[in-house]
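As described in the Methods, two query proteins were run sequentially through the folding procedure within a single session, without resetting any intermediate state between them. The first query and its resulting structure tokens are shown here.
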Amino acid sequence: MQVPDTAAAANVLIATDKFKGSLTAVEVAGHLTEGIHRAAPGVAVEALPVADGGDGTVAAALAAGFTRRETGVTGPLGARHTAAYALRDGVAVIEMAEASGLRHLPAGRFAARTATTFGTGELLRAALDDGAREIVLGVGGSATTDGGAGMLAALGARFLDPSGAPVPPGGGGLRELAVADFSGLDPRLADTELLLASDVDNPLTGPHGAAAVYGPQKGAGEDDVRALDLALVHYATVLHRVLGARAAEAAAAPGAGAAGGVGYAALAVLGARFRPGIEVLLEVLGFEAALRRATLVITGEGSLDEQTLRGKAPAGVAAAARAAGRPVVAVCGRLALPAAALAATGLDGVYALTDVEPDPARCIENAGPLLVRTGERLARERLAPAG
């Protein structure tokens, strides 16, 4: 049964994140659009794929009209590869994982102590070369715990051991740090607004810091975590001698522990401002204008769970939609939020693919067709005229 043409007055805004391990945010929006148009061919659908600063951030910017730019960078283990970023009107959107992400490690191999963020610094430098004067640095999915030292080195900083030689790459090498010299930093950084876009608010060190919380995801065992945390403490101590109180303040600030301490380097040395990634991306992508046109907002991600509530994209979209008085529903692969937590999100409804296909493996494998069917169902239930 199709919705009558009177549903054409509706204007649906699809602002979904990726379904991790299955579909990109662009693909999710495409499948939902197809399903909606099968049930309600006259409905206007605007797709604005979103991200929270991690994987998919550049893709979201490109879908919003940014231009794709590419440059050669140094990967986390030193191998060269091509990385992309997005540029429009002097604003660059950089996804750290493009240069220094886990996906650039050989299968099954981790390098918790030696992986470097040098390539992320090369991405920043390329954006400056392209004329960017505002840079959004999205962090997430990194393979590194080097406190952003590699990134800073690519931008002109020097980190030396007691003999005056450069310290080895990676967080492990920071234990040998004696001198931090920022006199050679790219001068263009002083005239550039840098926004650190992240969905985590961890400090640099300690039990809630970069090494302790995220090191194990990067292959760090207990000994590695202890060694990396001590190295980051030493790193912050050396920077405090050079930069003064702002280095200590940055180490304790929310977001300092993001991406193995890249947040700390950005805050303490580059003068970045930390903001929740989804807030930054919604602003950069032009979400506010699209929201004004919408009569219904659809958001979502692969798993709607407790992590969603900690600054993930669907929570940010839902909050913005509620503030604007727009109804908002979510589409997800699986729903893992208890009823009370779900009610607190303000969502007007949730459509989980597991409602259609209970087998999680088959759900992931057939996410595209299941999203089309979900889009049809959503259109019938949410876009049909009253009466």
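Immediately afterward, the second query was submitted; its sequence and tokens are:
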Amino acid sequence: MRMFAIVAVIGHPLYYLCWTEFQPQGFESAWLRAFSVLVALPMLFEHRLSRSDFWRRKVTLYWFLIVVYQLPFFFVFMSLMNEFATVWALSTMAACLLMVLIVFDWLMILAMAVVGAGAACGVFQLVGGDLAAQADDLLPLVPTYVFAILAGSAFNYKTELVAREKLAAITSAVGTMAHELRTPLLGIRSGARGLQNYLPAIFEGFELAREHGLPVKRVRTAHYRQMHAVLDRINAETEYTNVILDMLLVNSSRTTIDETSFEVVRIGACVGAALERYPFHSARERERVSWEQGADFAFFGSQLLTVHLLFNLLKNALYFLAQADDENGSIRIWTERSAAGAHRLHFRDTGPGIHPDVLPRIFERFYSAMPRGQGTGIGLAFSRLVMESFGGDIRCHSALGRYTEFVLTFPAVDPDE
């Protein structure tokens, strides 16, 4: 949308000058060009409009109307006013090809072309034009324009099909790898838990051996505690890796989340469990996160999935805080109760923020703004899938160099019902 707006804002004044000063045409309109620029200006700020509750659902309709007005309507009307002079007949063909590039669905392209061209013919008649007089010029061009639209759409569809097949191949490979990694992870986790269960008995036997004067090598209590800590870390890392595999499997299979196990849970319990179970790398990393336990609320969903979602937000935020190398960087989590039927959980970090060009894509599957090898591009897509399964929503607001904030909206429920 932004690129289209730039083309419109620059192109209309430029071509007005061209068609009036350098290669004068039979008809030009400064007012029509100015109006075209004016209605295109909001598209320059589309990423900001999408953040507003009022505009978010209207942006798509606005985009549809703008494309219809700027391409089929404007060019057909100007061609009619110039009696389909060669330059305007070619310009209309260029408008058809541009519409093919920005709208992938051939049926939608045809609908937009018919609506725009029909409106242009109607306005032409209203301003005193004689449509019948130009029928001989217009009718031979219609099959050419239709062919350009259909042929371009066919090539566009093929490109889109290749991209989808690539994505299908990637998701299939990812799903296979995730399944294959399950077995060794389960073995590692089972072994670690077994060692944890038997470690006290082994240490007790060691102490008894020492008491009876048997020649056994000394094991310090600190080493014993360190072994316990290592096993705890192995358990935490394998569990977190299993969470990643869960997200990979859900995203690779393109299925919806199973909602049969959903129940009424409280957000406070979910956040508390996430902070308790998350494998922080240091005490300093844990201190960066502040949970402002405000008004608690209930929602219908899954505590396990919510914890996994928070794991992903924590992982991303801590990574970018570390990259920013800001000792004072922090993460705030707080709740907001609403009487309007929905409650919110806010997750805000003071990291480097997200670039406006990247922000609209962060919830796409397999899209990652992290360096290659650092991110899989599945975490936020999984998070959105989870929130949609709860009947809620997740949005992101960010200011480059200042903060990134995720707002999770949960439909309110009565825990007593």
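Residues 205 and 211 are 10 Å apart (CA to CA). We note this only descriptively and draw no conclusion about the first query from it.
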